[in-house]
């Protein structure tokens, strides 16, 4: 990607206040994009947007989104349609992890994981499609996971949700690509963010040791892949799930 390749484009990054979403918001702003980022706390999102503006000199806005309520995603996308009808890029990043063995995970936890990761992402994707279809242009990246394709004990609810996102990527790409909108996904392996908080350091060190590239991923590793997929160098790529996992097979 050239240094200011995304100048003149507007990108929405959900969950842009920390972790992979934050790194992606920075990466896209560095490439010149106007970045709209969301957080559950709108004020925190606005502060993150001000940081982007100060650092890269590109316009940015912080918006509220809580995907435990699909109404919140619908409201967000109506607001984006009204205020940014030129939306070019969606990175549907916001998500939560679900941990628990099949025999003991409470049904409510499963429901939350599906509500946030699947229904929330679906609503944001639908809203973006409604904005992009009339313009016949756009690039969308969804966040799935290594566990969707390989399975990990204790992560069934999360794997089911992220598997849904991988499937959604393929169908959305089939439907939207003829309308000029590319849809891809990234499937991160183990990336050092707050999402890994439930795991003891020894387990993470063991995962790093098993990873062919010899380390865990960073949010910036994933942000680079996302920036590639939304940029012009990926202009003939759609319906693809790109692993960003250091070569790890669980
Ligand atoms: N880290 C990994 O190893 C890994 C691996 C594979 C896939 N992923 C995926 O990558 C994406 C980002 O993960 P991460 O590691 O950066 O996680 P993270 O550091 O925990 O950040 C999660 C982001 O999602 C937002 N979020 C959480 N619950 C939300 C809700 N109910 N409504 C709206 N936003 C919500 C958070 O917003 P707030 O700041 O407002 O809480 C935050 O910005 C997720 O989809 C995750 O499943 C991560």
UniProtKB/TrEMBL annotation:
Transmembrane segments: none annotated. The keyword DNA-binding does not apply. It is an enzyme of class 1 (oxidoreductase). Its EC number is 1.1.1.-. Keywords: Oxidoreductase. Residues 9-189 form the Ketoreductase domain. Pfam families: adh_short_C2. SUPFAM superfamilies: NAD(P)-binding Rossmann-fold domains. GO terms for molecular function: oxidoreductase activity. Belongs to the short-chain dehydrogenases/reductases (SDR) family. This is SDR family NAD(P)-dependent oxidoreductase. The lineage of its organism: Bacteria, Bacillati, Actinomycetota, Actinomycetes, Kitasatosporales.
């Amino acid at each position: 990607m050239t240094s200011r390749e995304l100048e003149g484009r507007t990108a929405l990054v959900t969950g842009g206040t920390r972790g992979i979403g934050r790194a992606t918001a920075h990466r896209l702003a560095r490439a010149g994009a106007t970045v709209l980022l969301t957080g559950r706390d709108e004020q925190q999102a606005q502060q993150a947007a001000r940081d982007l503006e100060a650092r890269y000199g590109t316009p940015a806005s912080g918006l509220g989104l809580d995907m435990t309520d699909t109404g919140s995603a619908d409201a967000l996308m109506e607001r984006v349609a009204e205020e940014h009808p030129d939306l070019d890029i969606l990175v549907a990043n916001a998500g939560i992890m679900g941990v628990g063995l099949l025999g003991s995970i409470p049904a409510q936890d499963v429901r939350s994981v599906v509500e946030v990761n699947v229904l929330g992402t679906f609503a944001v994707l639908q809203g973006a499609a409604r904005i992009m279809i009339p313009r016949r242009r756009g690039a969308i990246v969804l966040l799935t996971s290594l566990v969707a394709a390989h399975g990990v004990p204790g992560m069934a609810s999360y794997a089911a949700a992220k598997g849904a996102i991988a499937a959604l990527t393929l169908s959305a790409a089939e439907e939207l690509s003829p309308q000029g909108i590319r849809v891809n996904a990234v499937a991160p392996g183990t990336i050092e963010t707050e999402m890994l908080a439930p795991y003891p350091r020894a387990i993470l060190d063991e995962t790093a040791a098993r990873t062919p590239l010899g380390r865990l991923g960073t949010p910036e590793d994933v942000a680079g892949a996302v920036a590639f997929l939304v940029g012009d160098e990926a202009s003939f790529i759609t319906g693809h799930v790109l692993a960003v996992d250091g070569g790890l097979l669980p």
